[in-house]
Amino acid sequence: MTVKTTRKTFDPAAILKARDLIKLLSRSVPVQQALKILDDEVACDVIKIRNQVRNKERFVKRRQRILGPGGSTLKALELLTSTYILVQGNTVAAMGPYKGLKEVRKVINDCMANIHPIYHIKELMIKRELAKDPSLAEESWDRFLPNFKKRTLSKRRMPFKVTDKTKKVYTPFPPAPEKSKVDLQIESGEYFLSKEAKDRAQKEEIMERQRVKREEKMKEREKAFVAPEELEEAEKAKKEKKEKKEKKKRKRESEAAELEADADAADRKEKKKKKKSKSKEETSDGEA
Predict the structure, then answer these.
(1) What's the total number of domains in the chain?
(2) Considering the domain boundaries, does residue 118 fall inside one?
(3) What is the model's pTM?
(4) Mean pLDDT: which of 5-14, 43-52, 143-152 is highest?
(5) Which of 16, 44, 51, 218 has the highest local Cβ count within 10 Å?
(6) What are phi and psi for residue 91, nearest 5 degrees?
């Protein structure tokens, strides 16, 4: 498609405006909206976003992030930048003043680089409020703007490196390669055997393994019928010591019981003697 001027053209910049109009129409911008590009204060910018992300699924997710839920993010960007934005296919078409187009391009490029548009929206809202204050016209706004740091939610755990600092003997030759299965067979002589001999050797090996397993199982079964071993010397000594302690304890208890019995017997004898003496005194008094 070509764009040419006619004899009636009085504005030389109209050819550029016509080119932009055709470009916007090809990007599915409505005609009534695209005709606004003919105004001198309105410019357009077509941002290519497909080549910024390689993965198709990731590209679709990030493109949807520009629109937001129900187109709310896109509407907020349009209001803050005073532009018209249309996301179509692999490009984003924007119309509006030059300052707004610059901000829109930055937001979209950052969105494709995995920075959410909501951060830029917050920043634009703060800038709009600061622009209303004439006292801050010549000051830096960095102290008012939010500083969003990138968070890494999951870091790949690096393997722990063990550095062996012991001095090793320098050898100019590389280490010998590991021997293959064929090399091991040649060393053992198995490689030169016939097929029948190999099969026979393999069967013998299987039979030997089975015999060893059978013997192990028999030993496990016979353990149940083995008589328990006698107590070891240490256990015997411990048992004897315990018995001696018990004997001494019983002896002490018996001696204490005997002493108590003797004391009781002595008390009973004294009581009998007292009774006899009292009875004798009573009889002597009666005779008198």
Answers:
(1) 1
(2) yes
(3) 0.51
(4) 43-52
(5) 44
(6) -135, 160
